Amino acid sequence: MEGPAIELTSRQLQIIEIVKKRAPISGDQIAESLNLSRPTIRNDLSILVMLEYIDAKPKVGYFPGQRSVAHLGSGYLLRETKVKDIQSIPVVIRETTTIQDAVVTLFLQDVGTLIICDGDGRLAGVASRKDFLKVTLGNPGAVSMPVSMVMTRMPKVVTVSPDEPVLDAAHKMIFHEVDSLPVVVPGGAEDTVPGLQVTGRLTKTSIVKLLLDLEAKG
């Protein structure tokens, strides 16, 4: 059972609006916006953090809390959430894997798309259930073929970086009509083989869960 509602002061409401518009923002910057000193608003900030209207991270500053995000809506949440915050573990196979073994992996892991890497661990391509169906229907010999024969190869693979907003990733999924995206980072300067390293995968299901969590908080 929820406790009695706490009525916010005019200054506290102003602080919430400032944080919504300018996050991340420091306490000193908030105070400056109100033409007040930092000690004057210290208690207001503590109350708003406790009530989850704003949140704070050391060396980052203040940003909207769970209650504010719920009121700002799904658009704000998708813009402010990074891919790395909701990405899942990638299901990766080598490009030399047979189509039969790839299909077994597909169903055992219950995924719609497999991420395929070369012998150096760099992203080489992706293959979906549809790709496997196309090559195996009416072709019994296809099961022994390497998955490299049916995969979509780089650089045609649509990828996303860990720091991209989820909203941008969702637009990529819709535009390219795919259900998931490999999350990748460039190989480091010390790497002798150029290419992209796979750090995760982003799926439509992960995005839907994010939006459902928002609905539950609202």
Radius of gyration, whole Å: 23 Å
CATH third-tier fold name of the largest domain: CBS-domain
Largest sheet report = 4 strands, mixed
Helix proportion:
40-55%
User: How large a portion of the residues is in β-strands, by DSSP E?
Assistant: 15-25%
CATH classification class of the largest domain: Alpha Beta
The number of domains is 2
Number of strands: 8
- The coarse silhouette is elongated
User: Average pLDDT across residues?
Assistant: 87
Give the N-to-C terminal Cα separation. Answer: 16 Å
Q: What is the tally of helical segments? A: 10
- Give unreliable regions as ranges: none
Name the strands of the widest sheet in spatial order. Answer: 3-4-5-6
Q: Quickly give the CATH architecture of the largest domain.
A: Roll
The CATH homologous superfamily name of the largest domain equals CBS-domain
- Helices and strands, in N-to-C order? HHHEEHHHEHEEHEHEEH
Q: Helix- and strand-based class?
A: alpha+beta
Pfam families: CBS (PF00571), HTH_11 (PF08279)
Protein name: CBS domain-containing protein
Domain CBS: 86-143, 151-217
InterPro entries: CBS_dom, CBS_dom_sf, Diverse_CBS-Domain, HTH_11, Tscrpt_reg_HTH_DeoR_CS, UCP026546_HTH-CBS, WH-like_DNA-bd_sf, WH_DNA-bd_sf
